[in-house]
Predict the 3D structure of the following.
Amino acid sequence: MTRNRTRLAVMTTALVLLVTGCGSTGNPVDPAPIGAADGPFPAHVGGADAAGADPTPDTCNTKSLPPTNGTSIPSGSNMDKIKQRGKLVVGVDQTTFLFGFRNPTTGDLEGFDIDMAKQIAIALFGTAENRIQFKAIPSSRREAVLQNREVDIVVRTYTVNCARLQKIGFSSVYYVAHQRVLVSKNSPYKGLEDLGGKKVCATSTSTSLKKIATANPKPIPVSVDNWSDCLVMLQQGQVDAVSTDDVILNGMAAQDPTTQIVGEPLTDENYGIGIPKENEDMVRFVNAVLENVRGGVWKQSYNKWLASRLGDANPPPAQYR
Amino acid sequence: MTSTATRPETPGGAPGAPAGPPARPGSESRSGLAGLLDLPAQAVRSVMRSTRSTPGRLTLIAILIVVLSLVTGLVAVFMAQDKKGTINDLIDHREPLAAASQEVYRSLSDADATAASAFLSTGTEPPELRTRYQVDIARAGAALSKAASDSAGAADASSKVDVLTQQLPVYTGLVETARVNNRFGYPVGASYLREASELMRSKLLPASQELYRIDTDRLEAEQDDATGFPWLTTLLVLALIAALVVTQRYLTRRTNRLLNVGLVTATGAVVLMLLWGAVALIVQGILVGDGKEGGTHQVDVLVRARITALQARADETLTLVARGDGSAYEKDFGGLAVQLAGQDHNGGLLAEARGLVSGQSSEQNVQAATQAAGAWLNAHAAVRQLDDSGDYDSAVKTAIDSKTPDASAAAFLRLDDNLEKSINVGRQNFLDDTRGADRVLILLAPGVAVLAIIAAGGATMGIRERLREYR
């Protein structure tokens, strides 16, 4: 009798302990409480430029100054100063494949823009060998390096426009590009009009970024330092498209076969060589060099870098005031 | 007699049963619980009663001294063990951990600089740079797992370790992407390298710098802890000595006998305990302090100098990678150079380190490092001169050529090498001093235990001898 009661008590206690124990086990600990991982970003990623609406009307005269003395170098001229110095300082891009890029195998800068810069050095010194100091600059600093006289000329997919003409001078147009859109081959987008609310990349202060910011329906503009950074972001899935001039997009498509250029040409981008505003003699000199380039070197360089993807083309005719 | 009604007997005066609560008489008249609660009161009452007679008082004194001796001995043993434990922890955990986080910080900075250098060299990537980068990443990983093994206690440290363990694989992925594109001849490789460097500088290096600071602070805090003054033990020992002295004076007055062998032995044991403990702890404190000043502090200054140099080296090469667009890197280099060697190439962290190691075996290394830093900064000025004047190819050659002794790369490697050697000397100093402190304490705990037992035994014997005279 007593033993049975004891056994009952023990069993009841055990049951109570078991029940209360089961009720409060909690959840297993999550050893890695991470839902999403932040991918890496290129340096200085931003949005649209802060400047807002461009105050300069696009109705100015964008024609350049005509050559007067051919490629002769009068003493005391700005060309003479460069010649005395022994080096032509050129602001270029080193990240735009086929237009202005560093060849990783040789370490040399190459491309269509680089060929143009070399022609100007040849006109000054008779040879480009060891006569050019290239400075790689981000597109956002193109006006600044000319205004601060850090470089003599800028040859860097540089579109002639009225806002820029207020600060610097331009040569005649040596190439006409068209803004288009680069997307992944497996994406549904067929042009900028499909990209409303989507992220579209361009370099800061470029005309392409303005075009993206003012497109309808409105995409989300994403700005970076260099064009290659846009390709990085497209490959990392951080933007849906890159929109800029076809020659730049062409260089990206050449580096990544899973991308393609789509859409109608959105703009005409007239590339000129940037020169400090006061150096009018230099503008005329460069225009004289470009006259010669249009005669033969232009076609050679185009065929070397661009023709295989962009098809046959001829140099744009020069227009002077 | 003023005994209570429940306690008809008065055992306090009986010499045969002097100690403790007497047998419990009459407890049947109370309920169990109330009787239990009444026990302490009864004990106090019986003790109070017993102090009214000399033998009772002596017995009480004997009990107090024995208890005090044993408690003091116990506390002192724990204190000595605790000190020894702290010192062993310094040697086995804290210092290796600080060294591990230092290695994470260093190898990541070196990887950043090396990846940029490898990128600068054209054509086939130089195998020695590739090997150096791989060793850096492997060492960073190994040191990181060591640093992670003990970050659980410190929330700050574990959040830094989290950032590092999550971002390090991302960083190496970017460097490899850059490398593959580079080999294809695609300029997007340069953009991936810049992105990798940005990740390194915005996330990995700040986190590893913080981790290093946290672990060094923890090391120094524990060194302070190891040299802390044992207040409780000291008070107990002094109280015990006072009790023994007072007891002996009381006995002398009562019995007109000058010396009591048992009590004198007990006093001697406790005084020996005090002297031994004091000497051991003072020597230990000095050694641990030496390990902190001559070891940890010195290593900290040298490590900061070394990492500053590494980051400046990364700036130097990245300025060239950016080719004209690197003014931000060059500005950063200028700031780091001043931190490293001062405005005149003769100050900064290197001068601080020279002050700390003067007279030691690493003095030569730090002197050599200072000279190498001077040569490097001069070579850097030459690199900038070449690059700014348009001779980019010669600038790159001067910057990455490790054969010409006074060219940038060679001078930097010499600086790095000498700093590494002096850091190892500093770590050895720490280890020697702290190990010495550990040896000083080896016998203290058992010694104190034995002395406390001798004190307790001596006091018991001494007082029992006197008590016998009352029989």
